[in-house]
Amino acid sequence: MSRIIAPSILSADFNNLGNDIEMINRSEAGFIHFDVMDGVFVPNISFGIPVIEHVNKIARKPLDVHLMIVNPDALIGSFVKAGASIITVHYEACTHLHRTIQHIKNLGIKASVCLNPHTPIAVLEDIITELDMVLLMSVNPGFGGQAFIENTYKKVRQLKSFIEKSNPDCLIEVDGGVNYETGKKLFDSGADVLVAGSFIFKSNQPEETIRNLKIL
Ligand code: DX5
Ligand code: ZN
User: Residue 129's domain spans which residues?
Assistant: First the structure.
């Protein structure tokens, strides 16, 4: 099992984003997580390709791009060009998910699918072997700082057992409400990657918080 921390810049200080990216570069974080929201798939608009292009100029960690948007196929190429190393699309936003995953992989980067809290693991049965990662939402997508959904632990255990049988190299990432308490239980349940936004960026010692999350 990997233990990767992926700070979500959704909670970063956008008046000093470069400083926060340099903090992540110095830290033990494994990815930089970008929560891209279009105001249609989720009831919020966050940021898009220009932010990722600029961060990519100074980032020294892989860019983990979470597309909370409708019709992701239209923009996958642009996000790859902007510097994405991993692209996650929502199962709920993709009519032809197999084609979308092939599209991402044909561009030479890692492909991941995200499930909202209400979407069961079983929907991945015929696509799991194609995936590099599965992202489970532990909050309803759209905002940082929300309360963790307890059912997520069960979903992580179910997904872990499914992956062990069908695609052992596939990572499990969890996004939303991650702190020391939920993070430890998530790692213990089989998660590999923890996305944390407010818990890291509201901390007085973000680098230490990242280090502590990694060794939970
Ligand atoms: C929801 C976002 C958040 C964010 C992390 O759409 O995806 O889950 O990344 O938020 P925190 O860590 O503040 O709960
Ligand atoms: Zn995310």
Answer: 4-214
pLDDT tens for each residue of 162-213: 999 999 999 999 999 999 999 999 999 999 999 999 999 999 999 999 999 9
Closest CA to 59 of 107, 104, 26: 26
Ligand 1 pocket by Cβ (under 6 Å):
8, 10-11, 35, 68, 139, 141-146, 175-178, 195-199
Catalytic choice (35, 64, 132, 192): 35
State the total domains in the chain: 1
The residue whose two tokens read 């830290």 is 27
For residues 199 and 18, what is the distance between their CA atoms, to the nearest angstrom?
19
- CA atoms of 62 and 60, how far apart (whole Å): 7
What are the Cα distances from residue 143, in Å, to 46, 53, 176, 196?
A: 9, 22, 9, 12
CATH number of the structural domain spanning residue 44: 3.20.20.70
pTM: 0.98
